[in-house]
Amino acid sequence: MEVNLYCFGPLKSLLRKLFGSPEEEETITGFAVLRKKNVLDLLQNNVSLQLISTTSMDPSNGSGKLGEAAFIRKWKSSGERKISGESTYRIDFKWDFSFGTPGAFLIRNLHCHEFFLKSLNIEFPEQGNVHFDCNSWVYPVNKYKTDRIFFSNKSYLPADTPLALVELRNKELESLRGDGTGKREGWDRVYDYDVYNDLGDPDKGEDYKRPVLGGSTEFPYPRRGRTGRHHNKTDPATESRLCLLNLNIYVPRDERFGPLKMCDLLTNGLKSMLQAAVPQFKALFDRASDFHSFEDFKKLYAESANSGNSLEPQNGESLFKYPKPQAIAADEFAWRKDEEFARQMLSGVNPLHIRRLQSFPPTSTITAAHIEKNFHGLTVDKAIEENKLFILDHHDTFMPYLNRINALSSKVYASRTILFLCNDDTLKPVAIELSLPSGSRVFTPAEEGVFGALWQLAKAHVTVNDSGYHELISHWLRTHAVMEPFVIATNRNLSVLHPLHKLLSPHLRDTMNINALGRHFLINAGGLIEQTVFPQKYSMEMSAIVYKNWRFDDQGLPADLLKRGMAVKDESMPHGLRLVIQDYPYAVDGLEIWFAIQSWVGTYVSVYYNDELVRGDTELQAWWHEIRYVGHADKKGETWWYKMDTVEELEKALTTIIWVTSALHAATNFGQYAYSGYMPNRPAVSRRFIPVEGSQDFLELAKNPEVFFLKTVSSHFQTTAGIGLIEMLSRHSRDEVYLGQRETEDWIDDERVMEAFESFSSDLKEIEDKINERNADRRLKNRSGFAKVPYTLLYPSTSDFSRKGGLTGQGIPNSASI
Questions:
Q1: Rounded to the nearest 10 degrees, how much is the dihedral formed by the CA atoms of 393, 394, 395, 396?
Q2: What are phi and psi of 427, to 5 degrees?
Q3: What is the mean pLDDT of the chain?
Q4: Which of 133-142, 359-368, 501-510, 719-728 has the lowest mean pLDDT?
Q5: Which of 275, 245, 277 is CA-nearest to residue 807?
Q6: Which residues are catalytic?
Q7: Which pLDDT value is given to residue 588?
Q8: At a CB cut-off of 8 Å and minimum separation 6, what does 633 contact?
Q9: Is 581 within 8 Å of 658 (Cβ atoms)?
Q10: Who's near 627: CB < 8 A, 6+ residues apart?
Q11: Per-residue pLDDT tens for 673-711?
Q12: What is the pLDDT, as a whole number, of residue 280?
């Protein structure tokens, strides 16, 4: 039964309740914060609101009693909100005691334009306020099939919903699900699923055909948001595409970027295009497609020094030149060192793939004789026993595609790299195997002459493999693609009244929009990824093959580290986990973040659930069922899915979702420019094989190793296009909301939850201090390395509420929103 707290306020309300005093109609005041589409829009008398009671029923429809319509009339000035484009409007509602507490309101927009409704706050003198956290676009009434309803910031499990709100709760979810038919329009709020059938453009020709991803055993894939566009004539199984300049790809209206983020994206994209166009024009004028020396690279970057945490140039150079990447800011040749090559596997942009080697030899041509000379007297067996051997293995992922990839302009291998753990906790590479279907070659470290040049080329080929795997798998597949079904299922099945919706909503923000834009011009046929990453037209197809091995229960950090042998169970250690490499920055910082999230989730869930309530929550069970059987339908038969019968399973699932969308995404995204912004450090394309001794190419390599290296890796166009792309992806938006922060203070009406969230934020601030201490500790060599790039990708930035975005190289946004 809903308790009307407002009955215990003023004396006259108490007298009415005790003695049945006549009802008196009063005026209560509400303040709506909104942003108009156009400055000149006049909303007064064109927007009406009707309160819906939580406690008084309307017998005609079985829902809460509907109040008298009140119109927006007066504007309350607010300097801060005027700066952000928001205005505060006053609404006077008629209210009497019998109406009780409003738990929802109905809004009708009779104006010709939409507006963004941020919040509504209703003041009850001497009794407290009722707050509605809206954050939604409201279109004219003729655009909707059902009334727009907003609920207060109170949360209820389905079975605890006040009777007056039950029907409204259910109808709102029905409207968000839609009926699965028709083309979606810009004002729609419908969340539905589809396969990835919109990457190709077969009507343009054979070169633009791409397979449908999802819905088959050959190419399984997570589902994406349905748009309902018409299908292609050439291949009716595929969906038509919009003009490349048309960025209005359908996503539910409230999933669209806000104006500040969209402005940042367009501005940064235009800036990157301009920066890329100048050197490309010069190269075209000079009839050159390659860089001729490392000095040529330096001309791409501004020379001005960076200040503070920003990587931005500090003068007008930034308009035509790129910021200098961190990888070369302190030492432009640090990337050549074996120790830096290995360190980036632990604290670079792809620290997710290295694993401990637990048996030797791996399935390869590498022998003990190749590597034992670098073991300081240890044998291979002893090195494995002491957990000294590690491997970066890209062989099995790329080998099945090599013949097809190498028939294009790429010339790549499938690589395996063996590394040895030194006593100072640093790694050094001891052998690299580069394989083709026709055979393999093994390279070992060398510093001088032509064999030193061969070793540098071998490392470059490893990095090419790792760059492709990072962009297509670690970043796109594991944080963006697999999470889109969770976004869709949450909005289709968890009411905004549901406590789990309130918990998850900031971690799902903008993901559908950035994914849609990614399909539009990044991962599509002929898109920027195909132009700048070595698998080219097979990029997305390969990610579908890797998805075959994806498991949701392996995506949490502890499970991932244990699976890769980078940690072992040890009950004497905090949280029962011991890292095999103690100075593993991604894992050290990440585990602190993981367990802070886990603690926050555990406290939050305990407020609402026990095992019985988990099993009996109809919305929760529908949500989880739909994620498995629809959103990840190609994996529905897997036995590793949680049954979702217990609080423990729910906590594991929620912690994993929040980890993946926030910290895992931050670790794989926001360091891209720092390392990949300088192409020789992290090339994504190879155009030549490594020459064999006695060949003409070998003589060319011996004569000028620098030129041969540059003719091997990305071309001038691929380099500048790639730099422009990763610079844009590495930037934080100015409207970023970081882990441990919320957009509004009144996001939920529960003091227990608010106290737990404050504790979570405090934990993250303590982690910031620890990260700063570790980065200052000279004994931890993997924290910055020869390149002197401190590991800050998992620095939360929770304590800095004034951050303005940009190339900061740190901060954990709540969601995978770029």
A1: 100
A2: -105, 150
A3: 91
A4: 359-368
A5: 275
A6: 475, 480, 665, 669, 818
A7: 98
A8: 214, 215, 223
A9: no
A10: 485, 486, 489
A11: 999 999 999 999 999 999 999 999 999 999 999 999 999
A12: 56
Strands 355-356, 389-393: pairing is: antiparallel
- Burial string for 31-61 (b: 16+ CB within 10 Å, else e) reads bbbbbbeeeeeebeebbbbbbbbbbbeeeee
To which residue do tokens 């952000």 refer?
Answer: 84
Tokens for 335?
Answer: 């990337």
102-109 and 47-58: which strand pairing? antiparallel
Tokens of 363: 């399935």
Helix (H) or strand (E) holding 177: helix 163-177
For residue 81, the model assigns a pLDDT of 45
- Cα of first residue to Cα of last residue in the chain, in angstroms, is 43
Half-sphere exposure (CA, 13 Å, Cβ side) for 37?
A: 12
Backbone angles phi, psi at 792, to 5 degrees: -125, 10
Comparing CA positions, the residue from 555, 565, 553, 561 lying closest to residue 586 is 561
User: By three-state DSSP, how is residue 292 classified?
Assistant: coil
Rounded (10°) angle between helices 716-729 and 259-285: 170
Render pLDDT for 773-804 as a digit per residue (tens, 0 to 9). 999 999 999 999 999 999 999 999 988 755 56
Q: What is the DSSP string of 401-438?
A: GHHHHHTTT----EEEEEEEE-TTS-EEEEEEEEEETT
What is the rounded CA–CA span in Å between residue 64 and residue 54?
6
pLDDT of residue 74: 64
Cβ-in-10-Å burial (0-12, 13-18, 19+) of 213 comes to: buried
Contact (CB, 8 A) for 204 and 196? no
Which residue, 628, 723, 790, 779, is CA-closest to 268? 723
CA atoms of 151 and 104, how far apart (whole Å): 4
Pick from 484, 471, 538, 550: nearest CA to 516: 484
- Which domains are present in the chain? 5-171 (2.60.60.20), 334-783 (1.20.245.10)
| pLDDT tens digits for range 57-97 | 998 888 999 999 999 986 654 444 444 678 999 999 998 88
Contacts of 510 by beta carbon, 8 Å cutoff, 6+ apart: 255, 257, 261, 815, 817, 818
SS3 742: coil
d(CA 29, CA 53): 16
Name the residue with tokens 């492709």.
468
Sign, CA dihedral 445-447-448-449, equals positive
CA 774 – CA 768 distance, rounded (Å): 10
Q: Are 90 and 20 in contact (CB under 8 A)?
A: no
Cα distance between residue 523 and residue 652, in whole Å:
31
**Phi and psi dihedrals of 674, rounded to 5?**
-55, -35
Cα 222 to Cα 550: distance, rounded to the nearest angstrom: 10
Rounded-to-integer distance, Cα 394 and Cα 417, Å: 9
Q: Pick from 555, 537, 556, 559: which is nearest to 547 by CA?
A: 555
- As a whole number of angstroms, the distance between CA 343 and CA 352 comes to 13
668-700 b/e with 16+ CB inside 10 Å = b? bbbbbbbbbbbbbbbbbbbbbbbbeeeeebbee
> Both tokens of residue 443?
């390279």
297-348 pLDDT tens trace: 888 998 854 444 455 554 444 567 899 999 999 999 999 999 999 999 999 9
Query: In sequence order, which residues have a C-beta less than 8 Å from that of residue 543 and are 6 or more positions away?
Result: 221, 472, 473, 476, 477, 481
- pLDDT at residue number 21: 46
Residue 223 CA to residue 28 CA, distance in Å, equals: 46
What secondary structure letter does DSSP report for 670? T
Bridge-based pairing of strands 148-151 and 102-109 is antiparallel
Q: How far is CA 323 from CA 239, 290, 722, in A?
A: 39, 21, 14
Tokens 């920066």 label which residue? 275
Phi first, then psi, for residue 206 (nearest 5°) are -60, -40
